[in-house]
Amino acid sequence: MSIVIDGGRVPNLLSRKNRSQPTQSGGSQGRHAKGIRIALINNMPDSALEDTEVQFFELLDSAAGDIPLSLRLYSLPEIPRSDAAQQHLSNFYFGINDLLNSRFEGVIMTGTEPRQPDLRDEPYWTALTEVLDWAERSTVSTVLSCLAAHAGVLYSDNVPRHRLPDKQFGVFEYQKVSDHALTAGTGKVIQFPHSRWNEVRADALTSCGYQVLTQSAEAGVDLFVKKKGCLFVHFQVHP
Fold first, then answer.
1. How far from chain centre, in Å, is Cα 181?
2. Of the four listed, 135, 148, 174, 229, which is most buried by Cβ atoms within 10 Å?
3. Residues 6+ positions from 145 with CB-CB distance below 8 Å
4. What's the total number of domains in the chain?
5. pLDDT tens digits for 113-160?
6. pLDDT tier at 35 (50, 70, 90 boundaries)?
7. CATH number for the domain including 66?
8. Between 55 and 33, whose confidence is greater?
9. Which stretches of the chain are assigned E, i.e. beta strand?
10. Domain of 150?
């Protein structure tokens, strides 16, 4: 299938890999596209901004099958950016007010590089919490990846992050520890890549009503969910 990308973003990396390119559309066409509408809120640092787009394009293209899918790109304001990255956002991304005045079946929000020990001191914290509140009432499901997952549970349930003695870096094996539709059909062992200095812990999550789906004795919790208006799906990893 071809993903319709609002605003005309067709990543060059896909063509260099000899893959079929997503269909591009103007904003007005994208708003009327049939099928599932997804917002990708890409907050990754400048060096990973476009690579993250491509990775999620490929994942969504593989997962969607014959289901029509339209994608619209956003990024939280007040994340420090270089001039080149800011120009890229201006060319291909929609403003956060457009997001807050729209509805989507699904939202994916990535993390970014933390600059403050307390996430609530980050310059983009207010915008992030507005997006989380909006997602509860305006989506069916929202995926929070890495730092975005930490921010989500901190805001919603005051679940703290804990500093690790060393960076959790590499690909780790995770066991399914509870049944859920999201993990139906997967094997008992799932591999996920991690790159982080902090973690949220299973006991704190379960005490606040989160269901932990995958866990590792070596690397802690990975995938966990909670229904809060919409279904929030959290990864401590880069899925």
1. 19
2. 135
3. 108, 109, 110, 111, 235, 237, 238, 239
4. 1
5. 899 989 999 999 999 999 999 999 999 999 999 999 999 999 999 999
6. confident
7. 3.40.50.880
8. 55
9. 4-6, 23-25, 36-41, 69-74, 106-109, 141-145, 162-176, 189-199, 211-212, 214-216, 220-221, 223-228, 230-235
10. 4-235
